[in-house]
């Protein structure tokens, strides 16, 4: 068990479909094969450099996946170099390559020194006849020959019957039997186009498992990726192919983090070091440029964030009230957000975090005003709340840091910016350079503040509020100092100004509570 809780799992264990033998007992051994570096990379627009593959492979190893499909050696020299970089890491996880049903593909995989190969052969008539242009009989024969070839080269072999969910099940069984008889370690049931449901998956995998070890490769085109993966496991599959953040062809593959948490939470079956999942998700998101959807299970920004008053109040009374499991389980933290649905409990808790005292009637008034701000379609930030609170309580405060002037230039060799700030009543001027004007302006701010600018930039988001090149952009930054974080949003047509104003306001809020916040800039 990676987490202990008081979940009564018997209440979660509904049979996959009306039969009690179709559940997953907690003593089942299930392992996960990650194919982010192969199927995940097949997502349109995604291409990972060798360094990025290495970084992701290391993170997958920390998470404890059993196998990493590092790519398709047949794709080209660059891909082979990337796969070789992963095999060079000598990870505990088995490192494999995709191969078509071609001897040449196996040879290319061998060049990368992989531990194993997935020999992918057609299994539905559409794939056998129309795509590869062979026959069922010849396909069985070449599959057996290829498995023997790969085994003769000491490779671990998994045969994947591509489009298995649309194949004639009798033929799929023959393909599995032929593969395993020829020496393959396992056969994989592939729902290549994500078109099937749990019943068909269960039936197919049960039949295939009678011949030997079975894996499952499910896609999410119908939103059934996890359901089908679990149905496959219930039917006897002991290796599940997944990708981080569910990246992959079309609607993607089944998400690694979703399979891992579902097996753990519902069935008490351990597969991974769950607390590594969020870090892994962020590494993959940064490398691929595919943002994490806010409402995604486990890894989405909102997965452990509570805005509505009833939920916030309930969560503050008992943190399990509106969460299936603790966020720390998957390496995350709980957050309270402010908005249209905020109630008094959420306001009081957030004010307390910022060290602001308010009477119950003032908290009620602040909550009403926060709802009104939210009514205007806006996300309400910490800075908004603190401004409302100051207005309601009449507690005026002196600004610690204020932006007086900003100039930024880009387009030349080195983007530069100069800044004029008022800091504790004294004017400070500084300049900076950076990768772009925003970066240059931010280094100028840090230069002007000296050691007081030790706050970390936790997140930085830009949204275009209107379309066109004259769009107003909203920049939202979250900055953290001494375990306290503040979120500020600013909307401007000028992205550099919006970024600097948001950052300066956040620093101002963070520094305001310090006894003696600011040393001279040259300290
Ligand atoms: C469901 C999946 O995810 S399958 C994996 C998808 N992955 C990829 O496509 C990897 C990236 N692809 C590539 O780098 C290239 O497509 C290559 C190197 C594999 C092939 O490139 P090309 O030689 O230019 O072929 P092209 O991409 O046009 O067509 C694919 C060929 O593979 C053949 N093929 C497809 N699947 C199989 C298979 N399981 N076994 C044997 N041959 C196959 C096709 O029949 C076609 O051959 P043909 O040209 O003789 O008709
Ligand atoms: C190569 C196979 C496993 C695949 O990606 C699929 O069937 O979706």
Automatic annotation (TrEMBL):
It comes from the Archaea. Residues 30-278 form the Pyruvate carboxyltransferase domain. It comes from Natrarchaeobaculum sulfurireducens. GO terms for molecular function: 2-isopropylmalate synthase activity. It is an enzyme of class 2 (transferase). Its EC number is 2.3.3.13. This is 2-isopropylmalate synthase. Keywords: Acyltransferase, Amino-acid biosynthesis, Branched-chain amino acid biosynthesis, Transferase. Residues 1-20 are annotated as: Disordered. Pfam families: HCS_D2 (PF22617), HMGL-like (PF00682), LeuA_dimer (PF08502). NCBIfam families: PRK00915.1-2. The keyword Signal does not apply.
